[in-house]
Amino acid sequence: MDASEQTQGATYSIHIHGQPLLEMPRDLYIPPDALEIVLETFHGPLDLLLYLIRKHNLDVLDIPMAKLTQQYMGYIDAMQRNRLELAAEYLVMAAVLIEIKSRMLLPRPPKAVEAGEEDPRAELLRRLLEYEQMKLAAQKLNELPQAGRDFELVQVLIERVVEERLPNVNVEDLRQAWLSLLLRVKLNVHHKVRREELSVREQMTRVLRQLRHGEFEKFEDLFEVSGGIASLVVTFIAILELAKEILVEITQTEVLGNIYVRASRDITAE
Amino acid sequence: MSGQVETLPLSEEVVEQVDLTQLKKILKVALLTTAEPLSLSELKKLSDTPIENSVVEGLLKQLAEEHAGSGVELGHVASGWRLRACPEMQPYLDRLNPQKPPRYSRAVMETLAIIAYRQPVTRGDIEEIRGVAVSSQILRTLETRGWIDVIGTRDTPGKPTLYATTKGLLDDLNLRSLQELPSLDEMSNLLEQDNA
Amino acid sequence: MSGQVETLPLSEEVVEQVDLTQLKKILKVALLTTAEPLSLSELKKLSDTPIENSVVEGLLKQLAEEHAGSGVELGHVASGWRLRACPEMQPYLDRLNPQKPPRYSRAVMETLAIIAYRQPVTRGDIEEIRGVAVSSQILRTLETRGWIDVIGTRDTPGKPTLYATTKGLLDDLNLRSLQELPSLDEMSNLLEQDNA
Question: I want to staple A216 with a disulfide (CB 3.0 to 4.6 A). Which of A260, B186, C23, C64 is the partner?
Answer without folding.
Answer: A260
